[in-house]
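User: I've been trying to design a sequence by hand for this structure and keep getting stuck. Would you show me what you'd pick, starting by listing the structure so we're on the same page?

Assistant: Good idea, let's start from the same input. This is the structure you sent:
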């Protein structure tokens, strides 16, 4: 299979209410909305939606997040990603806010992400007709209007995730959090 795919994760980290959940910061909310809509339009979540008993015509908007553990620190999760900032919230804050955290594994061209054991999809919205028609195929004005329509739902969940914080620099020159990079570590 080529391109991205997502699978339900049955092993790995088990989320607890006091687990800190990290979402890497993307400065442009329009990019966040476009990515979530593109993933929904590609249908990569259809198998998961079917597994959960949702109708075929439902769409989903998700944000990739990661559980913070002793092994998977924010800096280690960021290795080779280009991200320098993140947002952080307790799982209980997100679930109390009405959001689901789905344990998922992400694959690109059939290759698993090495951080899959702590990956979660934060479900921003789920239901029929989520992606406005103008978002992907409209004129520039229609695309702006579609993003403006979706912006409040994304801003609400980002607010729960807290303000962006900078990744801590290495403690000494040359230090990285690359433990087990080739054997399931950070990417």
């Amino acid at each position: 299979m080529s391109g991205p795919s997502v699978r339900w994760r049955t092993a790995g980290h088990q989320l607890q209410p006091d687990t800190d959940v990290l979402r890497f910061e993307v400065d442009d909310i329009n990019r966040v909305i476009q990515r979530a809509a593109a993933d929904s339009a590609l249908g990569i979540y259809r198998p998961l939606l079917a597994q959960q008993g949702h109708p075929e015509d439902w769409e989903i908007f998700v944000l990739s997040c990661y559980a913070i553990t002793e092994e998977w620190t924010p800096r280690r999760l960021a290795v080779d990603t280009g991200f320098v900032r993140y947002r952080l919230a307790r799982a209980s804050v997100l679930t109390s806010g009405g959001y689901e955290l789905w344990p998922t594994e992400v694959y690109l061209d059939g290759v698993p992400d090495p951080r899959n054991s702590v990956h979660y999809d934060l479900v921003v919205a789920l239901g029929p007709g989520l992606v406005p028609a103008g978002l992907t195929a409209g004129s520039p004005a229609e695309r702006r209007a579609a993003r403006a329509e979706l912006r409040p739902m994304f801003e609400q969940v980002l607010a729960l995730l807290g303000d962006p914080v900078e990744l801590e620099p290495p403690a000494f020159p040359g230090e990285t959090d690359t433990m087990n990079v080739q054997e399931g570590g950070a990417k």
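That's my pick for every position. To get oriented when you compare it with your attempt: The longest strand covers residues 58-67. The radius of gyration is 17 Å.
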